[in-house]
Amino acid sequence: MRLKCDVKGLNKLQKKLLKAADKSKIRDTVERNTTELQEKAMRKVPVDTGHLQGSIGFTTSKDGMTGTVRAQADYSQYVELGTRYMQAQPYMKPAFDSQKDIFIKDLKKDIIESLK
Fold this sequence. Notes:
Blueprint: H1 10-20, H2 23-44, H3 51-54, E1 56-60, E2 67-71, H4 76-81, H5 92-115
Antiparallel strand pairs: 1-2
């Protein structure tokens, strides 16, 4: 037996939930999780001279709703992804993978608290 369910109006509901959410809490959550992601990447990155580790930084957008963690060293992607001569030593993706569920949980909590 197969059941099919169509739900209509989710986009509207999502927009209303975001409108009702406390934006300052969301900004704080974005910044906190972006900082934690940066710290995790810095702990996971292989260290030779420390240049790559020191080049890992973060920024947030003007509205505070977007955070970016980035390694600025010219060779950062070669360490992360490897080359034909060098095995990959991932640090950014594992850091991201360990932080994303925490971030989603924190955002859900912020939205639910805003609706109370």
